[in-house]
From TrEMBL:
Membrane topology of this protein: Multi-pass membrane protein
One Pfam match: Voltage_CLC
Gene Ontology CC: one annotated term: chloride channel complex
Transmembrane segments: 46-65, 86-108, 182-207, 219-236, 256-274, 295-313, 345-367, 379-397, 403-429, 436-456
Protein's recorded name: Chloride channel protein, CIC family
Keyword annotations: CBS domain, Chloride, Chloride channel, Ion channel, Ion transport, Membrane, Transmembrane, Transmembrane helix, Transport
InterPro entries from the UniProt entry: CBS_dom, CBS_dom_sf, Cl-channel_core, ClC, ClC-type_chloride_channel
Domain of life: Bacteria
Subcellular location: Membrane
Residues in CBS domain copies: 491-548, 556-612
A molecular function (GO) term: chloride channel activity
Source organism of the structure: Chryseobacterium oranimense
């Protein structure tokens, strides 16, 4: 027994010495153990272990953020008298956006890419490599923004934090692109699962928004991470912090018309929400102000909205819970509407304004400098729309209206239309309300809303924003792989060039001594003037009657197309397909020749990456 243990110890010491050769002398003991396990376990076994570690870490990060924000928010809204709350609604939302912007500028050097689009960007254009700073920067920024009243959600920052944890874990243990992407998604899954205590919704989020084309065996690490994140959330978070709804009505097939109409209403509202968000983003970007002044402007707008309509303060989950608990009057108790006689029409008008202005409050929070996402706002708005729909139905004479169910189904419908994620919305509400018998109405409303959203715009807002930055319009699996390729890697920096005024004799000599079959014709400043291929030169090369006084400019031709350094591999392949050639010149915006790119080199790299992902 002692000999056996001694052999294990010596094996571990040898392993440690081996890793010192790779520059890991300063590696921590647990890192060395995991490196050792990575070499001893099978791929699937190590991925399951990784899913547990990433899931627990990301889940814990989600718990910390939710607890921190809940504590701040609870102090402002429940521990302070009404007269002082008005002052707080004026001060704190403004302060939250300004402080967040200050933190971003001073501590994080202006790096503030946020939301689900940040994860998609890293997967698409950065080989799933997320900066380590995002493992904590999103927590700090969103805690300040939402804790002090920003009208946004914590789920997107939690997802970005989890994605950063998963990516950096994979980088530490030198995992491949496929495993790195998988663990990035596992971290985001655990973050969503911990935020909502909904593991299946977390998994659906990963498959529906982040991942495409994964094989079935890769399903297990996501499940493990989601379970770990959800368990930590359930164990550590207080009941009033959890996203839970305990009151609902049993499903009755006679109520299906309500759900059909609500699906249409939430789909149209989701489109309104997206359009307002895009217009506010464009408006703020066009402002000729510094980032700090934009933050101050956005903070002032948000503070004004929160003073007039307190439900816009923070995430808004307490308001939605009030709908399901029947505490309707508590919704407007702290607003100026309390001075009016509170009747059905007062509540309806108030909630209509809240729904309409929620899109503005969230957009100004996020785009003026705050940090947050659209998860909570879409759920809040959907719940409000569902409750409004129920009130209107009751007011016009319908009886037995399933109010609570309409609130829950409205949440799923709006989230499906805003995020383009119907499966995530369905399972999220089903898990959060223990309403698995509501699957039919949840499916009806979510799918209708999703189809309406797709009818207006084929891709989600996050992907549209990414597409506009990269001038690309897809998120298919093979496109994500192409995104991982870098244009700079395919430029032949040793391409042959020849001056446009060079004689044809000089050209023949260059062909004789070189090994290229295509030449760039440039002027004295290195500007591209044309190209020549061996096929263009051959008729002159073997013709004894060729005039030696001819110059290159007389036989050169214009390139079928030009590639710019800023073009992405997917764009370049499209240019190759349109031009029908296999080699094209690359220039700068000023037409400075940089080199040639071969279509075959891109395709070979893509096939290699595809093989790596499929192994």
């Amino acid at each position: 027994m002692k000999i056996h243990n001694k052999k294990k110890y010596l094996s571990f010491l040898k392993f440690k010495r081996d890793f010192q050769e790779y520059g890991l002398e300063k590696a921590r003991s647990y890192e060395l153990i995991l490196h050792w396990l990575n070499n001893r376990l099978s791929r699937n076994q190590f991925l399951v272990l990784s899913g547990i570690l990433v899931g627990c870490t990301a889940g814990l990060a989600g718990v910390v953020l939710k607890t921190l924000v809940h504590t701040i928010h609870n102090f402002i809204t429940h521990k302070v008298h009404f007269e002082y709350q008005i002052l707080f609604y004026i001060v704190f939302p403004f302060l939250g956006i300004v402080l967040t912007t200050s933190i971003v500028l001073t501590i994080f050097k202006g790096q503030d890419r946020k939301g689900i689009g940040a994860i998609l960007y890293e997967i698409a254009q950065n080989s799933s490599i997320v900066a380590s700073v995002k493992m904590y920067s999103q927590i700090i920024q969103s805690a300040v923004t939402v804790g002090l009243g920003g009208s946004a959600g914590l789920e997107s920052p939690i997802a970005v934090t989890g994605a950063a944890i998963g990516s950096n874990y994979a980088q530490t243990y030198r995992l491949s692109y496929k495993e790195r992407t998988l663990l990035l998604a596992a971290g985001a899954t655990a973050g969503i699962a911990s935020a909502f205590n909904a593991p299946i919704a977390g998994i659906m989020f990963a498959f529906e928004i982040l991942l495409t084309g994964v094989v079935f065996t890769d399903f297990i690490p996501l499940v493990v991470a989601a379970v770990c994140g959800s368990l930590l959330s359930r164990i550590l978070l207080q009941e009033d912090v959890l996203f839970r709804f305990y009151t609902r009505d049993p499903f009755n097939y006679k109520n299906v018309p309500y759900y059909l109409i609500l699906g249409i209403v939430t789909g149209l509202y989701a489109r309104y929400f997206v359009v307002i968000s895009q217009k506010v983003e464009h408006f703020i970007k066009e402002l000729k102000l510094s980032r700090m002044r934009k933050a101050m402007f956005g903070g002032l707008v948000l503070s004004l909205l929160c003073v007039l309509f307190p439900p816009l303060f923070g995430e808004g989950y307490e308001t939605v819970k009030a709908f399901t608990n029947g505490s309707t009057h508590a919704i407007i108790r702290n607003s100026f509407f309390r001075y009016f006689e509170i009747g059905d029409w007062t509540i309806i008008i108030f909630l209509v304004l809240v729904c309409l202005l929620k899109a503005f409050a969230t957009s100004f929070t996020i785009f003026s400098g705050g940090n947050g996402g659209n998860f909570a706002p879409s759920l809040f708005a959907g719940g409000t729309v569902g409750y409004l729909f129920a009130l209107v139905c009751q007011h016009i004479g319908f009886t037995d209206v399933p109010v609570t169910n309409l609130v829950l189904v409205g949440m799923a419908g709006a989230m499906s239309g805003v995020l383009y994620a119907p499966l995530t919305a369905i399972f999220l509400i089903a898990e959060s309300s223990f309403g698995y018998d509501l699957f039919i109405p949840l499916m009806i409303a979510s799918i209708i809303s999703y189809l309406i959203a797709k009818w207006f715009s084929p891709i989600s807002p996050e992907l549209k924003s990414l597409a506009e930055q990269g001038k690309i319009l897809t998120k298919q699996h093979d496109t994500n792989l192409l995104f991982a390729l870098k244009t700079e890697d395919f430029i032949d920096k040793y391409s042959e060039t020849i001056n446009e005024h060079a004689s044809i004799t000089e050209l023949f000599e260059q062909v004789k001594n070189g090994n290229k079959n295509i030449f760039a014709v440039t002027d004295e400043a290195g500007k591209l003037k044309g190209i020549l291929t061996l096929d263009d030169i051959r008729p002159y090369l073997f013709n004894k009657e060729t005039d030696s006084s001819m110059t290159v400019s007389q036989i050169m031709k214009a390139p079928p197309a030009i590639i710019y350094r800023e073009n992405k591999p997917l764009e370049i392949l499209q240019i190759f397909d349109d031009s029908g050639v296999w080699n094209l010149p690359v220039t700068s915006e000023n037409n400075d020749f940089i080199g040639f790119i071969s279509k075959s080199s891109i395709l070979m790299s893509y096939r290699q990456l595809l093989k790596e992902y499929s192994d």
